[in-house]
Amino acid sequence: MDRDLEAAADGSETVRFSYGLVFDRTCATASLVAAVLQRRGVPAAGQNGVSEPSPSATLRQ
């Protein structure tokens, strides 16, 4: 599964996530997901008018 996500960062169309990618390697996974989205035209936070989340934003449970 790691190779699927890494391939997607390089232009492949399929992304699959394993338990380990989601729960054990969260930062590395998030970085590769960001690369996939940016490669497909989704601007990164802070670019092209997309703002960073507010520091006062909180998650509701």
TrEMBL record:
<protein>
    <submittedName>
        <fullName>Uncharacterized protein</fullName>
    </submittedName>
</protein>
